[in-house]
Amino acid sequence: MANAQRLEPNPNALSKLKEKRILVIDDKVWNKFHLVPKDSTLNIFKRIDEKVGFASFTVTENASKITLTELNNYDVVIFNYCENLFNAKGGAFEAALKGWFAAGNRGYMGYHTSGQFGKETNNTSTEEWPWYQDSVLAMRMTGKDGPHSKGIIKRTEDPEILALPIMDGLPAINDNSNNLGHGDEWISFDLPPNPNAAPLWVDCKVLYNLDESTCNPKLKHPMGDIHPVMWIREDARENRFFFAGQFHDTNKNSALSDFWNNVLLRALEYVAGERTTSNSSNKKTILTAKGLSYVTKSRQLKVDLDGAYQISVLTSVGKQLYSTKGEGKMIFTPSAFATAGNYIVQLESKGTTTSLQVQIY
Fold it and tell me: N or C, which terminus of the chain has less Cβ within 10 Å?
């Protein structure tokens, strides 16, 4: 049967991804499983690299030998289906990773990864990597169902999260039962106010939840109405974290889906960061770029330039929604700003272009 055509998402024009040095930890020493989705996902990253152009792209198969000196050569670290990470507990790799995050402005991306149930007996953990659970994943796993459990995940309805660039182009639902009949593996964990919840969970923003009522077979480790499966977090050092618990299917289908292709690009863009600056004063946020500012309270653009210029408003993937010409100091109220979303404002003047990212809530 011919392969389905890939839906290639357009990169976020304001992402810093092309400036970033990427390291993929594709560990096959601690984890000799999930080899098919590992390779499938690596191929997706290679296609993204061809399209975006990372500063560098490196893959290593032995995490235990990575030093802090080596990690400092990279801006983003990806844990590609890394399990059995209990091996890192208290060791050299843990020390290196702690030092790397301490520098700040790092990006972490992981999926179907943890010290999770390194040595498991009936889904009861006897080994874990506590620092990784609490400080990186912000999640302490308590159980898992699968590996081929069908179910539907649903996008958050939080308008603040929906307006983030990482959500651009991602669907309201993803039904993994469409993956040629194969399902996925679902992880369960404690949420606040449970005292066993990871302390940093309160800082997480959930992108997708599992609708447990759609699971077949029914979950043995249900979480209830709120069952996060994908989330992001940013800490005080401006480190950015992305985690997804699913995409386990060893028959390639979930790891090759259009949904997973899109998620990987958007997640990479998120952990890489965006080109934007903001200053807050009296609850009125002003986003600024050279000669251009946006005030959230009035949803207005202010231009402070001499001579003629053209100002345009585009979606995060480059579709033009508004364009007009001006001269000198002027104030604009683009019609596009009446709708919540993530926008790129471009100001063209004297042969130069200034860009500003604006989020409308």
Answer: N
